[in-house]
Amino acid sequence: MFEEIIFMVGFAVFSVVMSYVLLVVAPEPLNKFFQVLAVLGIVIHELCHVLMCLLTDTPIRTMKILERSDNESKFGLKYGGRIELKEFDKLTFLQALLIGFAPLYLSFWLFFFLWELLKNPSLEVLIFYLYIFIMVSLVLSAAPSFADLFTIFGSFQFDWRYSLYQIFLLLISICTVWFSVAYFQFEVFHEILTYLLIILGYYVYKYGFKELRALIQHFLGKRSSNGSERANIKKLTRRRLKPAKLREKEAQW
Fold it and tell me: What is the pLDDT of residues 153-167, one digit of tens each?
C-alpha cells in the first residue's frame, strides 16, 4: 500500500548520486551542460515548494524562483531559489514536512508520469527529447536541500509537544487507512488517493479530539465546586505562543 514511499527514498538517493556524478565528476564541458540543465530543475524545485505552501495555506513573504548566487554550491551551481515564509514561528511540523519534501514526491510523480509518456510509439522526436531533458532536470533537483531539512527540524523544536501530537495523529490516521483498505479490500486506483484518505483521517481525528476535549472540560467544569479549581487539561490540540525572538525568523527553502 505504501510501496511508493520506499521508491521515493530510493529516488532521493538516486538524485543525490546522479547530481554529484553529472555536475561534479563529469568532465568539462559535459558537466557545464548539466549545470545549465539543472537551472530548470531549480525552478521546478522552488515551484513545488510554492505549490505546497498554497495547498497548506502557508503565507509566503517573498519568492525568488531563480536568482544568481554569490557563492557556488557544492555541485558548482551559480543559481538558486529562495522562498521566505511569513510568521515562521507559526509553521507547524506537519506543514514544514509537507513543504520541505514537496520537490521529492512531486518530482517523483512527474518523473514517472513522463516515463509512461515516453512509451508512446507515436511520440514525436522533439517531444521525446523534451521529456528526457525535463526528467534529467527533475533528477538533478528532486532531493531536499539542507535548508529544507533544517527548516523541518527547526519547526519540530518550536513546539515539540505539539509536533509529537501531530505525528501521533498522522500515525493513527495511517493505521486506520491501512486497516480499512486491507479489511474491506478497497481498490485504490492510485497511491495519491491513499494519501488523501490519510489527510482526511488526520483532520477527522484532530477535530474529533478537540470536541472530545471540550466535552471533558465542560463536564469537569460542572463538577467543580470552585471555578478556580477547574480541571486543567493540557491543550495538545492547540499550538502555544512562541518566544518573541523566534518571530523574527523566516523560513528559507
Answer: 888 888 888 889 999
CB 177 within 8 A of CB 194: yes
Cα(210)–Cα(116) distance, integer angstroms: 44
Task: Classify residue 112 as exposed, middle or buried by CB count within 10 Å of its CB (0-12, 13-18, 19+).
Answer: middle
SS3 61: strand
Give backbone dihedrals phi and psi of 89, rounded to 5 degrees, phi first: -70, -20
Domains of the chain, by residue range, sit at 3-248
d(CA 98, CA 10): 18
Task: Tell me the per-residue pLDDT of 166-197, one tens digit each, with 9 for 90 and over.
Answer: 999 999 998 998 888 777 777 766 677 788 88
Angle, in degrees to the nearest 10, between helices 146-158 and 160-184: 100
Contact status, residue 89 vs residue 247, Cβ threshold 8 Å:
yes
Q: String of b and e for 10-47 (b: at least 16 CB within 10 Å)?
A: ebbeebeebbeebbeeeeeeebeebbebbbbbbbbbbb
User: pTM of this prediction?
Assistant: 0.75
Return the residue matching grid coordinates 558537466.
31
Q: Which residue has the higher pLDDT, 61 or 228?
A: 61
Of 208, 210, 98, the C-alpha closest to 155 is: 98
